[in-house]
Amino acid sequence: MRAVLSVPLIVVITVGFGIPSIVAGFLDPTGGLAFRMARQWARLVLRACSIQVLVHGADNMPTGPAVYAANHGSAADIPILFGYLPAEFRVVHKRSLYLLPVVGLYLYAGGHISIERANPFRARKSLARAIERIRGGTSLVVFPEGTRSPDERVRPFKRGTFVLAAKSGVPVVPLSLVGVKRVVPGGFLRIQAGTVELRIHPALPTAGRAAGDAAALADEVRRIVSEGCGQG
Length: 232
What we know:
Layout: H1 2-27, H2 32-48, E1 51-56, E2 67-70, H3 77-84, E3 90-94, H4 103-109, E4 113-115, H5 120-135, E5 140-142, H6 160-168, E6 172-178, H7 180-183, E7 194-200, H8 214-228
Parallel strand pairs: 1-7, 2-5, 2-6, 3-4, 3-5
Antiparallel strand pairs: 6-7
Helix pairs in contact: 1-2, 1-4, 2-3, 5-6, 6-8
């Protein structure tokens, strides 16, 4: 019943904020205005779903650009991070999301970064663009599992995210999204009211790490994220 009531409201909120955010993205090349509108969209979506977000570890936020690495188990992850991560950021996403109505055009206009995984040449070019953006002061949010986990377990992290951080020379901040699978098991067609947690862990510096250390860094970040989710 909650989904029956919430989903139409989510659609209205998404269209109502999405179209102005797209316009803002084209008018403001920095993407800052579009991001601020997306933050309001995210909070309204979560309120419509009766999802409360508790943030822990805000004092661990670095002062400059960073790569934020989070587990990915639910469609709620995106609004949780847009709504409550205390930093402006851009999302690294798969290129196919551009095909989604409203959302795809927002990602493009808002300056978020697409990766075409099926094409290694284009993937490398996307990685180079992402490194340039980070060095220019932009923080990124990534989901190193690559796709949603089918259960609450945090899956292995792919190394590409950590090559990105090492080559950019910025810290990696592990993020644990706790309880998301319980309130939104998959898409928004199955919603349960409840409380989720965003746990921000201390940043891991990448200074002195080579790109070849990416696999070890991926394992270290996954361990922190998993422990933050209560998984040993």
